[in-house]
Amino acid sequence: MAESASVPAIAPLRRGEDRPLPSIRRRQLREAAIRGVITLIALTGIAAVVLIFVFVAREALPLLTDPEVRGEASFGKLFLPQVLRPNRPPGFMWQPVSGVPKYSMIPLFVGTLKVTAVSMLVSVPVGIAAALFASEFAPPRLREVLKPVIELLAGIPSVVLGFFALMVMATWLQSAFGFSFRLNAVVAGLGLALTVIPVIFTVSEDALQAVPRAYREASLALGATRWETAFRVVLPAAAPGVLAGVVLGFGRSIGETMIVLMASGNAAITSWSLGDSVRTLPATIAAEMGEVVFGGAHYSVLFFIGVELFLFTFVLNALAAGFVKRLVRRMSGGKA
C-alpha cells in the first residue's frame, strides 16, 4: 500500500495578518485621494458653468420682474413687429439709443443666421475634405506639413483675422461680386470660416485616423478603389466624430465676436440678402455692453441675449449628442 503524500501543515493566521500590507494600503489611499481630486476638479468646472449662467440669468431677470424695464423692453417688443413710424406698417428694428428705444431681436437673429450659414457652408466641406485628404491620400511628408499648417489657423488671434477680412477680403469680394455694401454677411462669414475650418479639420482627422485599418484592407480586397474606400467605408465609420467636429465648429461660429464685429458692418438690418450689412448677437453684446446704464432696460436686454446664446448652445449640443449616440448604436448593430 502506497504511503500517502505528506501535506505540509498550514499555520493558523495570527491576529492582524489578514489585513492588507502597509504598501498596498498606502497605494489604495493614494488612488482614492487622486480620484477625489479629479472628481473635485470636474465638479468645479461644472459649477463654474452653472454659476456663470446663474449670474447672466440674474442680470436679465428684470425683464420679468421690473415694471419699468418691462414697459420699455417687454417680450412683445423683443419678438413681435412694432410701429416704427406713423403711417408705416409695423416692422423690426434694433435701436436702443433713441427717444423711443427699440429692442427687436429679429434683426440680430437674422444677422447671426446669415453669417453662421455662410461660415458653415464654406468650412464644413473644406474642413472635412482636408481631413479626408490628410488621412487617406496625402503622402506622409505632406501630411506632416499640412496638418500643423491648418491647425496653426486656430492659434491666430481673431482680431488679426478680422483685420484681414476688413482690409483685404472685403475689398476683393466687393470688386469681384459687386456688393453694394463693402462689409456684409459674406465677408464676415468667410472670415469666420478661417477660424472654424481648423476645428472641424482637427476633430474629423482624428476620427478618420481612429477607423481600424482592417476596414480599409477589407474594402480594397473586395475590389474597391481608394476613393470608394474613403467615401463609402472610412467616412461613414468616422461619422460620429466628424459630426462632433461640425457641432464644435458651429458653436465656435455662432459665438465668435471680434471677426464679425470688424467685418460685418454692424448694421441691424432685417434682410435676407447676403450682400447687406448685418449685426449678430455676440457682436451686439461686445459693442454695447461698455456703454449701457447699469441696471437699465438696455443692460438687461444685453444679458438676455447672453441667456439666449447659452440656451441655444446647450440645446444644440444636447441634440447633437443624442444624434451621435443613435448613430453609433445603429452602426454597431443595435436598435436606433
Task: Considering the chains and any ligands shown, give keywords for the structure.
336 residues, mainly alpha, MetI-like fold, two-stranded antiparallel ribbon, globular
Descriptive notes:
The protein is mainly alpha-helical and about 325 residues long. It folds into two domains: about 20-60; about 95-330, MetI-like (MetI-like fold), CATH 1.10.3720.10. About 70% of the residues lie in helices and about 0% in strands. The chain has 14 helices and two strands, in the order ααααββαααααααααα. The chain has helices at about 20-60, 60-65, 65-70, 75-80, 105-135, 140-150, 160-175, 185-210, 215-220, 225-235, 240-255, 260-265, 280-290, 295-330, and strands at about 95, 100-105. Strands 1-2 form a two-stranded antiparallel sheet. Strand 1 and strand 2 form a beta hairpin. Helix 7 packs across helix 8 and helix 13 runs antiparallel to helix 14. The radius of gyration is 29 Å and the shape is globular. The model has no long low-confidence stretch (mean pLDDT about 85).
- With helices defined by DSSP (H or I, 4 residues minimum), what is the helix count? 14
* SSE class: mainly alpha
CATH superfamily of the largest domain: MetI-like
Count of structural domains:
2
CATH architecture of the largest domain: Orthogonal Bundle
Uncertain spans: none
CATH class of the largest domain: Mainly Alpha
Cross-sheet strand order for the largest sheet = 1-2
Q: Strand percentage, roughly?
A: under 5%
Number of strands: 2
Give helix and strand order, one letter per element, not per position. HHHHEEHHHHHHHHHH
